[in-house]
Every structure is written in C-alpha cells, then in structure tokens.
Amino acid sequence: MNCYNCGTIIDNLNTCPVCGRDQSIYKKILRQADVYYNDGLMKARVRDLSGAMRDLRMCLKCNKYHTDARNLLGLVYYEVGEAVKALAEWVISKNLQPENNRVDVYLDELQNTPGLLDGVSLSIKKYNQALEYCRQGNRDLARIQLRRVLGQNPKMVAAHQLLALLCIQDGEYEEARKALSAANKVDALNAVTLRYMLEVKEGLKAKDSKKKKKRKNDDIIQFTDGNDKIMMPNNGNKFVDWLDNSRNSIINIVIGLVVGLLICFVLVVPTVKQKAQTDAANALVDANEEVAGTSSSISSLRNQVKSLQEELSKYTGKGDVVTSYDKLIEAYNAYKANDITKATDALAVVNPDILETNGKAIYTEVSKVVNEKVLRESYNKGYTAYKQQKYDEAIKEFTTCVNIDPTYQNGNLLYYLADSYAKMNDVTNAIKYHQQLVATMPNSKWVKNSKEYLTSVNAQIPDPIVNTTTTNNTNRNRSNTNTDANAGQAGGEQPEGQPAEQGNEGEAPQ
Questions:
Q1: Which of 11, 15, 38, 272 is the least buried, fewest Cβ under 10 Å from its Cβ?
Q2: 477 and 409 in contact (C-beta within 8 Å)?
Q3: All residues at 6 or more sequence positions from 369 whose CB lies less than 8 Å from its CB, including other chains
C-alpha cells in the first residue's frame, strides 16, 4: 500500500514516515471500496445487475483505481445491452493498469469479432430513433423499431422496458408482461421493471374483474314482484327461442346475412386494416432508415469531394506540371535577358520535384543566379534594418537568406539573425541560431560571441560539425562576396548594397 500523498510504501503503518500524513481514514475508505466490490460481485452472480451497478459505482467513488470493480461494471453494462458504457469503463481500466489486466481479453474479443461493434452501434441508433418516435407521438412506429432493436440485441433492458411502457399505454397488458419478463431474465431486480410489472398486474386484474362482472350480469335475471326483488339464473335466451320457434324462413335468411356482414366488418375488416397499417408503418421505418443511410452517404461523398478539391487546388497551383514548365521557360528567358526580378517571380511558382532531368538542370542554373541576387538584396536590407534597430524587419530579411543559404557571409548572417532575436527578447530562436552558428561554422569570427551568449542563458553549446558541404559553401561565399571581416581588415570600400559598417573580428554589434 502506498501513501496517498507522496506515494511512499507504508505497508501496515498508520502514518507515512516521509510526509507524516495520517493514513487511517484512507485505509478505511479503501476497505469500504472492497466491501462495495464484494457486494456488487454477489449481486451480479444472482443477476441483480442494477444493484450490482450501484455497488460498483460506489466502489469506484471510494477508489477510482479499483480496476477489478471497473472491469466488472463494464461486464454488467455489456450484459444489459449498454455496450458503449462498457467499452468506456474498459478503456479507462486499460489506461489505469496497462499490464496484467483482465480487460485485455474483453477488448480483444470486441475487436476480433467481425461486425460486433457495428451491430451495437446500429442497435443504439435504432433505439434513439424509437425514442424520437415516442416524443413525436408515433407509438406504432416506436414499437416496430424497438422490436427490430431487440432482434439485434435481445438483452437490451432499456428497449424491453420502453416497449412494455408503450404496450401499457395502449392497454395491451399481455404484451407488456412478455416484454417485462424478458427484461427480468436479464436483470432480476431492476426497479423500473418491477414497477412496470406492478402496473401490468393491476391492469390485468381490473380487466379480469370487468369480464367476470359482465358474465355474472348476463347469467342472472332480476325483476321485482310487488315489494320483492327477485333474482334468478337465465336458463334460456329469448332471441334464440324466437329463432327456433320462428317459421318465417325469410327473416332467418335476412338475419343470417346481417350476422355475416357484422362478422365481416367486426373481424375481417379490422384485421385487413391493421395489416395495412402495419405494412405502412414498416415501410415508413424502412424509408427513415434509408434516408438516414443516404444522408450519411451524402456526407461521406461531400467530404470526399472536398478532399479531392483540395488536392486539385494543390495540383493546379504550384504543383501543376504544365504550369511549372511554363514558368520555368519564362524564368529562363528572363534570366537570359538579365531581368532577374522577373525570373525570381516566375521561379517562385515552379515545383522542382516534378521536373525531368533537363528541367532540373535549367532550374538549378537559373535558381543559382536568382538566389545570389536574393541573398545579396535581402542581406543588405536586413543589415540596414539591424543597424536602425528595426529588428523585426531584420529578422524577416535574414530569415529569407537563411532559408536559401545559412552559411552566407561566413557566419555574419546567422549571428545577426540570432542577435536580432535576442534584442526582441525571443530567447528560444536566439539560442537556436547561435547553436547553429557554433555547430556548422566553427571558423566564423562570431563563434566566440555566440558561445558567450549561450553560456549566459545556460544553453547547451553544441560540438562543431565540419563537412564538405559547409566548407564548399563557405569558400563560395568568401570568393563571391566580400565578408564583413575582410572589409574591416582591408579598410576598403564595401561592395554595392553591402552594409557600410561592420564590426572587427570577434566583436559583437552594439
């Protein structure tokens, strides 16, 4: 046993030796939870499932980690047809005790039984539809739907009870008694079932008393002789005697025809009418189910259409093969005409992943020139904004350069971007780019400053990564563009568009 406060193993101690909390009340609650569990188990064995539910819920209120009680509660729910509630309890039990849990057997059975969950879901939908019919006053449709539910899930106690209630309202006590008997076989002492059964017994008793009273009145003749009231059994039927004694055959024939017509209207016509109403009700229920299925299919098709439209919009945009090649040709022509701006705009639409070998070669040739121009212009704009303390604009321009070539300017780009984030108090991104500078460009003049910053914020200083790609990019940047360090050491003029002022080797910008 563990302490409820700190989790220390206390065994039989009444006080935790670590935190000093009293454990006596906690132990009493756990013992009470075991008592509720044992009571629920005994009631479940005698099929008092509603009583077992109450005791097991109380057990879980006392100890929500009692997985045995939660598993048993799920079994009880499943037995009365509440598969969704059962599945919820079993999932919680699995999360509380992932290993050595009996619930694995139940979940595997649900998953490995073909169509079981689909059948449960369908029966629940039909039961909800029956409830909706009841709210609308369509009791006949509700009864038909409930019989279909019980055909799929005969242990659903709630469906039996609702069907019995509808039969009681219609005065069909025998049908109600059959439904309640079926519910009682599943849950022997359900309070709702017993209350409905009492109503049925009273209704059958009242119905039988009316029949006996009517039969008794028919068998007795009452008349008054002076001041005396005489009651005597009716041993003969005047109407039958009159028919027997009548010699008028025409009257007998007419009476026979009338009786035949009455029998037809009383017995045959209601039966045919009832059958027609039942067929119509069945057809209506089938139509509602078909409409519900059609609505679900329409919703699924709409989702598919929406997904296809999204894919089509992506395909017809930058990913379109025809568009990519058209824009690639346009970019190449602009590149040959030294119109780098137009080539940049056209190249932004091209998707290089769908190009063939020749197309990729042209794309590489054009993008190299375009990227150099973008790098130069964005870096100069970013540095100017950085000097003017417009750090948000500087971050935007420097990020554009980093996305193309993070080794540009031999570390100046990464350092200014990291320092801009630091000036904006964005420590996370500042650490990210300082670490990238230290790891990928160990020969940069800003490595010392980056390490000092990482030390000041207690961030990890990565080991330098030296690879051929970084070396080649660094050599290319050194050969194509004069770095800030070269400019400071040579004391000469900066290239066109470059910042006019740069710090000396190892200095951080102010």
A1: 11
A2: yes
A3: 335, 340, 343
* Residue 507 scores a pLDDT above 50: no
Q: CB of 61 within 8 A of CB of 55?
A: no
Q: What is the mean pLDDT of residues 394-416?
A: 87
Question: How far apart, in whole angstroms, are the C-alpha atoms of residue 462 and residue 455?
Answer: 11
Hey, is 406 helix, strand or coil?
coil
Phi-psi region of 210 (alpha: psi -120 to 50; beta: other; left: phi over 0): alpha
Give the Cα-Cα-Cα angle 441, 445, 440 (nearest 5 degrees). Answer: 5
Q: Encoding tokens for residue 203?
A: 């209704």
Query: Which of the residue ranges 171-185, 202-216, 219-233 has the most confident prediction, judged by mean pLDDT?
Result: 171-185
Structural contact between residues 442 and 466, judged by C-beta atoms closer than 8 angstroms: yes
Half-sphere exposure of 140 (CA within 13 A, CB side): 11
- Cβ pair 197, 177 in contact under 8 A: yes
Q: 9 φ, ψ to 5°?
A: -70, 120
Any idea which residue has 């699924």 for tokens? 300
Assess contact for 363 and 328: CB atoms under 8 A.
Answer: yes
For helices 427-440 and 447-456, the axis angle rounded to 10 degrees is: 140
Residue 502 has pLDDT above 80, yes or no: no
DSSP for 284-295, please give it: HHHHHHHHHHHH
CA-based nearest residue to 95, from 59, 65, 56: 65
Q: State the DSSP H helix or E strand holding residue 462, giving kind and residue range, or none if neither.
A: none
| Contact indicator for 498, 475 with CB cutoff of 8 Å | no
Token pair for 493: 């003029």
| Mean pLDDT to the nearest integer, 397-406 | 87
Which amino acid, residue 355? L
> Residue 54 — pLDDT band, cuts 50, 70, 90?
very high
Q: 222: which strand partners?
A: 231
Structure tokens at 340: 């780098």
Cα-Cα end-to-end distance for the chain? 62
- Look at residue 181 in the predicted model and tell me its pLDDT: 92
Q: What's the whole-model pTM score? A: 0.44
Counting Cβ atoms within 10 Å, is residue 195 exposed (0-12), middle (13-18) or buried (19+)?
Answer: exposed
Q: Tokens 């009870």 belong to which residue?
A: 161
* CA atoms of 118 and 111, how far apart (whole Å): 11
Mean pLDDT of the chain: 78
- What average pLDDT does range 151-158 have in this prediction? 88
The string of DSSP codes covering 53-119 is HHHHHHHHHH-TT-HHHHHHHHHHHHHTT-HHHHHHHHHHHHHH--SS-THHHHHHHHHHSTTHHHH
